[in-house]
Write a structure and sequence with these properties.
Four Helix Bundle (Hemerythrin (Met), subunit A); 10 helices; 218 residues; mainly alpha
């Protein structure tokens, strides 16, 4: 995960891996032949959570990370600015796909025919973006952003998650190995950690987020 000297990237890698996990689940649902995937994606809580948390993460970067880095790197190498341009361009491609998939889910006539290709495009684009960011952009963040600026990004993302915090933390830790989950939880304020352990985790598990409302499972 890299050797970062300035910034703690634990939560960044955690959200990236959660997004990878969910987009793979979405792709598997779409590939199933035994039921209409529109019924699952259209009614399961998992699709709404994925959209909410992906949008919160990317919007927070767009508002509090890339602009600060552009300002800090002005006048420096063209390759660094090109990397930031690529990060913004990749976000701009990914976000409209969520609306396109929602439109396909609502289209009773031809939506099923479009859905597979849209999800494949989302999966390919998102996975490539996350890999690109981790390979190149995180190291540049570590060199460029101050602790205060990094905290501002975290605060922006936290504010955008808002009332979904009770779902966000168990969603983030879903399927994560115990040692890594403990490392993430160690960075969470004690009251929130206690809420996760006593209430949020059990409530999240009861949601069965990739189960359709009619009982279809993931």
């Amino acid at each position: 995960m890299g050797d970062f000297k300035n910034l703690d990237m634990t939560m960044m890698f955690a959200i990236h891996d959660a997004l990878r996990r969910e987009v793979e689940r979405i792709a598997r649902i779409t590939a199933r032949a035994d039921e209409d995937p529109r019924q699952v994606l259209g009614t399961a809580v998992g699709w709404e959570l994925f959209k909410t948390f992906l949008t919160a993460h990317h919007t927070s970067e767009d508002l509090t990370v890339w602009p600060v880095m552009y300002a800090a790197l002005a006048g420096r190498g063209d390759s660094e600015i090109a990397l930031l341009d690529a990060m913004e361009a990749e976000h701009a491609v990914i976000e409209p796909l969520l609306a396109d998939i929602d439109a396909a889910l609502a289209d009773r006539d031809s939506g099923a025919e479009r859905l597979g290709g849209l999800v494949d495009t989302l999966r390919t684009g998102l996975l490539a973006h996350l890999d690109h960011e981790e390979r190149d952009a995180l190291a540049l963040m570590d060199l460029t952003l101050s602790q205060e600026q990094w905290a501002a990004f975290s605060a922006e993302q936290r504010d955008r998650i808002g009332s979904d915090a009770n779902r966000y933390l168990p969603w983030l830790l879903d399927d994560m190995d115990a040692a890594r989950a403990a490392s993430v939880l160690a960075r969470i304020p004690p009251p929130l950690r206690a809420a996760y352990e006593t209430e949020w985790r059990a409530s999240y598990e009861e949601l069965r987020i990739w189960t359709a409302k009619d009982g279809a499972g993931r």
